[in-house]
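Submission sheet (multi-component)
Chains listed below:
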Amino acid sequence: MTAKLSANDLTLFRGERCLFKGLSFALNTGELLLLEGRNGSGKTSLMRAIAGLLSLESGEILWDGEPVRVQRQAFHGALVWMAHRVGLKADLTLVENLRFEAHLRPQSGADFDEVVKRLDISRLKRLPVRSLSAGQQRRVALARMMLAQAPLWLMDEPFTNLDREGRALVMKLTDEHLEKGGMCIMAAHQDVEIGSNVKKIELR
Amino acid sequence: MTDYDENPGLFTAMLGVARRDLLLAWKRPGDILNPLFFFAMVATLFPLAVGPSPEQLEFSGPAVLWVAALLAMLLSLNSLFLSDFEDGSLDQMLVSPLPLTALALGKSIAHWLTSGLPLVLVSPVVAITFRMPLSVTGFLMITLLLGTISLSLLGSIGAALTVGLHRGTALLSLLILPLAMPVLIFGARTVSLVAAGDGVAGGLYFLGAYAVLVLSLAPFATAAALRISNE
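Outcome: structure written.
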């Protein structure tokens, strides 16, 4: 059986520097791929490459057995990315930001108020994102992931700026997502206690 | 995944981007007013420097107004993708399943509505300082209307190419100006011809055709440029 998402023999250069060479992995539904490595080891670059924002020197990323570059729209429709920069407009309110998201990607139909309540940001709904703390902004980015209908979650350092409850919540949400048959690729440099189907890639 | 059918429509995505940018402009009116002030200042200071001679003012009016409009447009273009790039929302658009072309077009529409259209609306007031007759002012507005559409769309290509560079303003102007030259020449010349009482259909046809050409090609170029400069 072919994996839902697989990568074969990836090589990526940034300028003169080779970030990784001959990297392969396969990811099936319900599995978590953990990217580990020092700062600057290429975790974010690998994630950007998977999302199709960086072109690889060699190698191929396959989604459902087909290269993603020939089915960009289908692949992008199936992923949602929590990047290091949260991607929210500082001048717009939380609601306005998330409403714009609904124009960008298919939505799961999850109840907006419930999601916001669960992330403990419901009282911030009418405030411009500028006035939210960094951790609260991360929670809004989490809300975007939960509202999107995407089996593949890409999370780049999801624990940054979050408090203890926030970190626990991220792990719990990811766990639930995996149980529902989702997939997750996470870059983290701290211990993650999520589910049982964890694969690891160590970047050097 | 076969959820492509469930994607938000192309048109709604385009309107969504345009609406978001308009909302942002509404919350930060300074970004709109800056180029507009620049346009008004250049165009009103010029007559003071030239002197009160009516012939000279009527002669130089179309040229000055058009150059000021072009520079004001350039001024506003620099920030077109910059804030999206800096806060990461450009990345979110790049990983959206929707064609980037539609999103780029949405951004251009919002940009024109917030920078091109205000120039067109203000131009009759500014034209008074050049003693421009009302009949000529109408044509000035029409040429500016068609010209700013082209400039907005052309500029989005340059803005997309230079978005990853810090301080790409000079480069942006260098990239855009050669393509914008026909708009300036035909725009200013058409208004001069109206003032001289000559036929103007040719110039208007050209500006219209140029706007349609750019409208049909620029969003694709902008989308490609955004992908390249975000590598």
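Remark: Strands of chain A lie at 5-14, 17-27, 32-37, 58-63, 66-67, 79-82, 152-156, 183-187, 198-203.
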